[in-house]
Design brief:
The chain has one domain (2-242): Rossmann fold. Helix 2 crosses helix 3. The strands form 2 sheets. A 7-stranded mixed beta sheet has the order 1-3-2-5-6-9-10, sandwiched between helices. The chain has 9 helices and 10 strands. It is of the alpha/beta class and 254 residues long.
């Protein structure tokens, strides 16, 4: 977990940053350095010092771990930001943090409608094959973590290239629940215009899945946190600055 202290104008909102597959909280370092607001970058289980099998972590387990980190790091309102597979965890995390959550931001964020899986949107023609593949991967990579801390014992470390597909498929195969997330909670999708992983048609489906009303385009490939951190930070500062606890709505400048 990485906490970046900043003093910005407006409400005391903390930006919570959830990385995608094959990454750790460190991927957000350039964005945190550029943010005007306080931020917390959290690690999903299965990496760093969060001990778990990276190919077999339940969404509820991940949400509980992240919620505990957020509770430790911030006591006020939060804006939740999920990149790629990190977006799959946002509904469960928002449900745990309840009315502290002012806005959900999906940065090329994967998502599914209530009661569905992301695989059903991303690869509907291969659902059965991928489900079988995940069973094999979980068996083959049991006890594995992405870049575990030196203090973690009894696990096998994986590099990002090996871990990313395990990480991603594990979350994409799980049923997503939006229970406990108010329909009125504002949601924004940050759409990378040069994303080779998510073609425009898929982006449109993900926007519909997460219920985003605001779509903000960014000139970037799939990972703006690495490619254009200052531009992404400006977007997140704007979203956080416009979030309102009183109305539960957000106004995004054009």
């Amino acid at each position: 977990m990485r906490i970046s202290e900043r003093t910005g104008r407006g409400p005391d909102v903390t930006v919570v940053l959830v990385h995608g597959s094959g990454h750790t909280a460190r991927v957000w370092e350039p964005v945190q350095a550029a943010l005007a607001r306080r931020s917390v970058a959290v690690d999903l289980p299965g990496r760093a010092d969060r001990v778990a099998d990276i190919a077999d972590v339940a969404l509820d387990t991940s949400a509980a771990s992240l919620a505990a980190d957020v509770d430790d790091a911030a006591d006020g309102p939060v804006v939740l930001v999920g990149h790629s597979a990190g977006g799959i965890v946002l509904p469960a995390l928002a449900a745990r943090l309840r009315d502290r959550v002012q806005h959900l931001v999906f940065v090329a964020g994967l998502s599914a409608k209530h009661g569905e899986t992301v695989v059903a949107t991303v690869r509907p023609e291969a659902e059965a094959f991928l489900a079988d593949r995940l069973v094999v991967m979980r068996r083959e990579f049991a006890g594995c973590m992405l870049e575990p801390d030196a203090s973690v014992e009894g696990v096998r470390g994986l590099d990002a290239k090996t871990a990313a597909p395990l990480d991603s498929l594990n979350y994409m195969e799980q049923i997503v629940s939006w229970e406990g997330v108010p329909d009125t909670l504002p949601r924004t999708f940050v759409r990378p215009l040069r994303d080779r992983i998510q073609p425009r048609q898929l982006q449109d489906a993900l926007i519909e899945n997460c219920g985003a009303i605001d779509v903000i385009d960014i000139e970037s490939g799939h990972t703006p946190a690495v490619a254009v951190p200052h531009e992404l930070a400006a977007i997140l500062d704007r979203v956080a600055g416009r979030s309102s606890r009183a109305t539960g709505r957000a106004i995004i400048d054009s």
